[in-house]
Amino acid sequence: MPRFYVEDCSDAQEQIAITGEDVNHIKNVLRLSVGDALMVCDGNGKEYTCSIAAVEKDVVYAKIEDINQNAAELPCAITLFQGMPKSDKLEFIIQKAVELGAAEIVPVMMKRTVVKLEDKKKAKKLERYQAISESAAKQSGRGVIPKVSDFCSFSQALARAGEFDVMLLPYESAEGITYAREVIAQAADLPAGSKVAVFIGPEGGFAQEEVAAAKDKGAKVITLGNRILRTETAGLTVLSILMFQMER
Predict the structure, then answer these.
(1) Which residues of the chain have pLDDT under 70?
(2) Cα torsion angle, 152, 154, 155, 160, sign
(3) Total-model pTM
(4) Which of 102, 138, 199, 217 could form a disulfide with 97 if both were Cys (CB 3.0 to 4.6 A apart)?
């Protein structure tokens, strides 16, 4: 069933008005008409099973048939603090992180980050990243659209993650797969509503001083096995493990 996100519809009881670019998508791409079914989400976990009541030039009116809570969200909110990679790798990471249940993605400029972004380009990048998140959320049946936050420094990311319930930092020089399994299991078993931070380095990995600073803030430094994973693989590996173990 086609899925659309409409802000400020949480209190709707009978009808929802769909506007903007979605109108063209409904009319000219999907070619839906009166009576056809679609799903509307408020972006906060509530979803409405609807049928199209009317199609006008700039608005589609959807009649509410049923209201439910979305079942696709994980019990804990996982934020991926991703070291900014080269090229368009972050677009791929965002898409897959959303599919795997991440609640938020934060691009982090770390010591070994190669990319240097001009301020005037950052807003455009974030706009595109958010659009990718929304598209992935629709495809994977998410009840919320994960936020892609503004670029920040490693110290800013650490300060924010200090408020989380657990902070995970996979590191190629870490040892002890048994310890890593225990840490992951503990994170996956946190009470509903807990917040988990996952830190991933850029292509060059973390600088030693970054790992030390993270440890000082309480980060659990873990190994992901005997292979060195690319930056676009490491975060998705952690998210996959957490998603599988957190599912209820």
Answers:
(1) none
(2) positive
(3) 0.90
(4) 102
CB 117 within 8 A of CB 87: no
Tell me the per-residue pLDDT of 31-71, one tens digit each, with 9 for 90 and over.
999 999 999 998 888 999 999 999 999 999 999 999 998 88
- Reported as half-sphere exposure (CB side, CA atoms, 13 A), residue 43 has a value of 11
Cα–Cα nearest to 83, from 117, 58, 108, 51: 108
Closest to 246 (Cα-Cα) out of 77, 13, 31, 9: 77
Q: Tokens 């991440």, residue?
A: 102
The pLDDT of residue 202: 96
Taking only the tens place, the pLDDT of each residue in 129-142 is 999 999 999 999 99
What is the length of the chain? 248
Sign of the C-alpha dihedral, residues 59, 8, 141, 34? negative
Q: Measured in whole angstroms, how far is the alpha carbon of residue 240 from the centre of its chain?
A: 13
Residue 211's nearest CA partner among 68, 95, 111 is 111
C-alpha dist (Å) from residue 83 to 28, 94, 245: 39, 12, 25
Please answer whether residues 13 and 64 qualify as being in contact, where contact means their C-beta atoms are separated by less than 8 angstroms: yes
What are the structure tokens assigned to 186, written together?
A: 């503990």
Distance CA 173, CA 203 (A): 15
d(C-alpha 223, C-alpha 226), whole Å: 8
User: What is the number of alpha carbons within 13 Å of residue 139 lying toward its C-beta?
Assistant: 12
- Count helices and strands (H / E) in the chain: 7, 12
* CB contact at 8 A, 50 and 40: yes
